[in-house]
Structure to design on (390 residues):
């Protein structure tokens, strides 16, 4: 009869464990894996964007340097243009002066002719110089007049030649300066055109940099969202694994404790209950309670029977927990997160009390250490019976 009860308890425990394990909702591993892949891809993309931004910035810097150089060249060309224009203006002034000198020289020559005409009197030949010669008083006077006329003519000719030569040179210089000015202006126009192109390229490069920075910002935001999803997925997976492990442990504990309680009852029924030593079967909850307390009696039966047995021997039994007392769990009563055997109950030693909670140590074949101690803290302390030492 007891064997059938033990088997039934085992089946019940396995059924409970199966129900607990199947109720744990698993988190798909793909969600964590996908989040990792997405984060990795996003970081790779961010690195590529940063490289592109660096290249674009280098391009902007190079273009700005070229624009600056063009500005210097334009400034130098403008200085040369100004200097050349000043030279041209100076040459114009000199040419004007030479023209005035030519006009003055012509005026002097005209006055000389008038003077000679006055001296020659009425014209005979129609040539002032010839008439001037014919009016000589004698040969010596004629020779003297001839020398004077020749000197005068040569002086006027030399003066006119010098002035005209200077004027020609000035004109040539002016032409050269005007050609140089035209060349400089063309050079300046070309520099201005080059600068305009460079400024346009620089603006395009800066715009490209701004677009890349906007993309990087959006990518960083996406990375933050992906990281948040990854953290949540990881936390959910960890929680699911922990819940599954806890459910498995609870199922195993319920199964083994129920089986140990059954075996304990079976052993207790056939064991020797003397008044000395520990006569309970080793590894059972009753054996540990006797061993830990040192004052519990032999022959008190199954765990659920200890309250009545102790009271019959004069021990105080009530619902007041106290450190050093024994706590008795009735048949099928919950021991925290697992259930005592529905036929034989359970007994444990109270290590400490904190408000409505008690910390107990216990033994049993369902625990990793059958001989104990196996510690557990449970609430609802007033729901249990306690056997106090004398």
């Amino acid at each position: 009869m007891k064997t059938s009860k033990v088997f039934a308890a085992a089946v019940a425990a396995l059924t409970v464990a199966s129900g607990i394990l199947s109720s744990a909702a698993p988190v798909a591993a793909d969600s964590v894996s996908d989040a990792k892949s997405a984060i990795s891809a996003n970081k790779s993309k961010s690195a590529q964007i940063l490289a592109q931004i660096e290249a674009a910035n280098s391009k902007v810097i190079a273009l700005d340097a070229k624009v600056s150089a063009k500005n210097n060249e334009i400034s130098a060309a403008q200085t040369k243009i100004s200097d050349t224009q000043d030279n041209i203006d100076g040459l114009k002034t000199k040419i004007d002066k030479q023209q005035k000198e030519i006009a003055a020289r012509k005026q002097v020559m005209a006055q000389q002719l008038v003077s000679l005409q006055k001296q020659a009197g009425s014209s005979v030949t129609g040539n002032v110089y010839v008439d001037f010669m014919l009016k000589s008083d004698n040969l010596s006077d004629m020779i003297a007049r001839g020398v004077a006329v020749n000197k005068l003519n040569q002086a006027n000719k030399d003066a006119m030649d010098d002035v005209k030569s200077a004027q020609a040179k000035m004109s040539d210089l002016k032409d050269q300066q005007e050609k140089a000015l035209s060349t400089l202006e063309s050079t300046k126009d070309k520099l201005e055109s080059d600068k305009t192109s460079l400024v346009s390229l620089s603006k395009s490069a800066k715009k490209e940099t701004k677009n890349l920075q906007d993309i990087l910002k959006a990518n960083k935001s996406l990375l933050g969202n992906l990281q948040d999803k990854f953290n949540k997925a990881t936390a959910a997976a960890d929680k699911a694994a922990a819940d599954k492990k806890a459910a498995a442990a609870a199922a195993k504990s319920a199964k083994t404790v129920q089986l140990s309680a059954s075996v304990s009852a079976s052993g207790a029924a056939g064991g020797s209950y003397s008044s000395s030593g520990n006569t309970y079967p080793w590894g059972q909850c009753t054996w540990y309670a006797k061993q830990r307390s040192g004052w519990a009696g032999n022959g008190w039966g199954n765990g659920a029977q200890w309250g009545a047995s102790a009271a019959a021997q004069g021990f105080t039994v009530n619902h007041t927990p106290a450190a050093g007392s024994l706590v008795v769990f009735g048949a099928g009563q919950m021991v925290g997160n697992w259930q005592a055997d529905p036929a034989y109950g359970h007994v444990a030693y109270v290590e400490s009390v904190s408000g409505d909670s008690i910390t107990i140590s216990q033994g049993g074949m369902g625990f990793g250490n059958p001989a104990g101690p196996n510690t557990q803290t449970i609430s609802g302390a007033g729901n249990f019976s306690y056997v106090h030492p004398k």
About this structure: The chain is about 70% helix and 10% strand. Strands lie at 316-318, 326-329, 334-335, 338-339, 346-354, 357-362, 374-379, 385-388. The radius of gyration is 63 Å.
